[in-house]
Automatic annotation (TrEMBL):
<dbReference type="GO" id="GO:0009252">
    <property type="term" value="P:peptidoglycan biosynthetic process"/>
</dbReference>
<dbReference type="InterPro" id="IPR001264">
    <property type="entry name" value="Glyco_trans_51"/>
</dbReference>
<keyword id="KW-0472">Membrane</keyword>
<dbReference type="GO" id="GO:0005886">
    <property type="term" value="C:plasma membrane"/>
</dbReference>
<keyword id="KW-0961">Cell wall biogenesis/degradation</keyword>
<dbReference type="GO" id="GO:0008360">
    <property type="term" value="P:regulation of cell shape"/>
</dbReference>
<dbReference type="Pfam" id="PF00912">
    <property type="entry name" value="Transgly"/>
</dbReference>
<keyword id="KW-0573">Peptidoglycan synthesis</keyword>
<dbReference type="InterPro" id="IPR036950">
    <property type="entry name" value="PBP_transglycosylase"/>
</dbReference>
<keyword id="KW-1133">Transmembrane helix</keyword>
<dbReference type="GO" id="GO:0030288">
    <property type="term" value="C:outer membrane-bounded periplasmic space"/>
</dbReference>
<keyword id="KW-0812">Transmembrane</keyword>
<dbReference type="GO" id="GO:0008955">
    <property type="term" value="F:peptidoglycan glycosyltransferase activity"/>
</dbReference>
<keyword id="KW-0808">Transferase</keyword>
<keyword id="KW-0328">Glycosyltransferase</keyword>
<dbReference type="InterPro" id="IPR050396">
    <property type="entry name" value="Glycosyltr_51/Transpeptidase"/>
</dbReference>
<protein>
    <recommendedName>
        <fullName>peptidoglycan glycosyltransferase</fullName>
        <ecNumber>2.4.99.28</ecNumber>
    </recommendedName>
</protein>
Length: 231
């Protein structure tokens, strides 16, 4: 009897492994969900606003056709305090993984999926980029569940074609900080009236804190909540 149970468990184990492998192969081939081509991964579609300056190079404002009022910023223009805060908050093992943080993912599955506790997210910065670029807003939890493995594959591909610095730059240029502030450069001007390089440590912490949930940590509406998150 015990032998039959053990054999059955091993069979179930191999079936799960085989099914998982087949699913990820199908995702990689684009047979399940949308898988961007290499050319698209190497050249993601960004929409940047036009900056308008005076003769003495003072910024008057920006103009954009789309609703994404984004102004490009390079990695060299990003302050170290902002980069360090982002990694510490959103992806503490950013320099160690290749798109998927197995430890964080396992923790999230155990705490959130099994224990029903707030265990923090398991998504890496690369996974968050893949969600922003290629995942439409899910209508329900089941749809969001099926989007996750597709984002894992895209995140691994992003790590293959981009350096860590490029991934951080991509994330901070793409993220929406609400109030028509898309990207870190526009957000810095919108909330603090300065370039990202001129952000004080606590100001950088406020903007990074918004990455968790921009609506919940909107500095124009929830000062006490934002200060608690920042500190």
């Amino acid at each position: 009897m015990v032998k039959k149970i053990v054999i059955t468990l091993w069979i179930l184990f191999f079936v799960v492994i085989l099914t998982t492998v087949v699913i990820f192969i199908c995702i990689t081939k684009g047979w399940i969900g949308y898988m961007p081509a290499i050319e698209e991964l190497e050249n993601p579609n960004y929409k940047f606003a036009t900056e308008i300056f005076t003769e003495d190079e003072q910024l008057l404002g920006t103009w954009a056709i789309s609703d994404e009022n984004r102004v490009y910023i390079s990695y060299d223009e990003l302050p170290e305090t902002l980069i360090n805060a982002l990694i510490a908050t959103e992806d503490v093992r950013f320099d160690q993984h290749s798109g998927i943080d197995a430890k964080a993912l396992f923790r999230a599955i155990i705490k959130t999926g099994i224990l029903r506790q707030q265990g923090g997210g398991g998504s890496t910065i690369s996974q968050q980029i893949s969600k922003m670029l290629y995942s439409p807003n899910a209508e329900n939890k089941m749809e969001r569940f099926f989007q996750k493995p597709i984002e894992w594959v895209i995140a691994v591909n992003l790590e293959r074609y981009y350096t860590k610095e490029e991934i951080l730059t991509m994330y901070l240029n793409k993220f929406s900080f609400l109030n028509n502030a898309v990207g870190i450069k526009t957000a810095s001007y919108t909330y603090f009236g300065c370039e990202p390089k001129d952000l004080r440590c606590e100001e950088a912490a406020v903007l990074v804190g918004m990455c968790k949930n921009p609506s919940r940590y909107n500095p124009l509406r929830f000062n006490a909540r934002v200060e608690g998150r920042r500190n």
